[in-house]
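Quick start: what a row looks like.
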Amino acid sequence: MNLVQTTQGLMDLSRLEVKDVVEVGDNYRKIATEYRLGGELVRREVTVTALRPIETVAEQGVING
């Protein structure tokens, strides 16, 4: 028995419809796993991956300066 925490409490995974949704943007890939019970969304897990490094600019400061 595989239990999953949902908005309805702990539920056996075999009772749920599981679907992966993939979205690709300019600089990201988002994979969402949706768990539904009778068509109602009861859990959603999301992973986001950057496709290119994100450019950052940092300034170095002086402490007590």
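That is the whole record. The chain has no helices and five strands. The two ends are 62 Å apart (CA to CA).
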